[in-house]
Design brief:
The chain is about 35% helix and about 20% strand. By secondary structure, it is an alpha/beta fold. Helix 8 runs parallel beside helix 9 and helix 12 runs parallel beside helix 13. The protein is globular and about 60 Å long.
Length: about 425
Amino acid sequence: MNEYDSNRISDLIKKFGYKKTNDVNNIDCYILNTCHIREKATEKVYHDIGRLKKKYKNKKKPIVLITGCVAQAENKEMIRRENYIDAVIGPQSYQNIPEILKKIQKKVKKFDFTDFDVIEKFDQINKLENFESKISSYLTIQEGCDKFCNFCVVPFTRGPEYSRPFKEVVTEAKILASNGAKEITLLGQNVNSYGRDLKIDNKSRPYFSQLLHKLNEIDGLERIRFTSPHPKDFKEETINAVNTLNKVCNQIHIPLQSGSSEILAKMHRGYNKQKFIQKVDMIKKIIPDVSLTTDIIVGFPGESDSDFKDTMDIVKYVEFDSIYMFQFSPRPGTRAQDMESSFISKDIIKERFKHLKDVQTDISEKKLKRFVGTKQTLLIDKQSKKNDKVLTGKIDSGQITHIDNKYVSIGDMVQVKVTDSTPFYLKAELI
């Protein structure tokens, strides 16, 4: 979501005369868009500002804006602590950035824009054409969250769930496609609750599956992905849409977080391990060859050896294609922060994390090997960072795939044969 927000901020300030640059040594305005999920996110902001101050010690100071979730959570403290910052701007106040820049240029005092005005935000953003379109682009359809999981800051930094109007999402998807995007990833803190707050012509709300059906009709668009859904809200109709719609990719991200029912209750997730397994079994029954990914937090307060074993049991049972793993760290303002008496030692967390990583690496390697010898459709979207003779992209089910650049280019969607696999990606050749 941060990449999408960054692109929209770029669109906003282009009309104000600014343009992106990779030359940080020669800038008029420095915008740091932040995420609060990772540990020490706040300190990273001050570290980055410190590096910027050194670069401009003997030069004119650029305007410095801190945006995103860290800005929302730490707004007043940031302005108090770091005089180099001109404004902190929360996720629902991006539409104010052009006006903020005008006032800063006029030497008006520092700004704290962290109100939850999500409707005003989208009213402004919906008027913009997304000029930052890429082969594979992001599209926010929903913001905020009403779940209040005890480890998560999203309800506090992005507010309650708000669905963008159905027609406006479709319009932006068409713009992305017309600008060259062949694949879009739908974004939201809980995408499968999309539409809960919407009506069309005063009739029943559009469900997420209905949106998928509509986007599937867009000319020029080849692939649709989405993240992240919540297991509790995963409806069978959405799974059926993934299975039947030709442009919706054969990949589902379903966040587990923990395999222990007791820990899931402490997290306030709204399901237990049995219900999660039932949901996974339903997905696999409808889509037998689906690629499943998940999120897991290791070391949530109170997690015992038995609780962690429950997590590992589910990992081995489901055999996720990949896992986004996190070592627990308390986020400011969350209930988990107040569970200090139940915190797990960092050494135990690291040990469990390593075990999970080792087991999942073996599973991922096995899951990737099943593609060797198969024919796949590959969308090439970037240059390999390690080898300038190799291009990379994803097959339909989301696996990263490398191919020699002799006969293909970025943006090509080609038929390939998978020739080899590693623990982390596939290798393919043009058919």
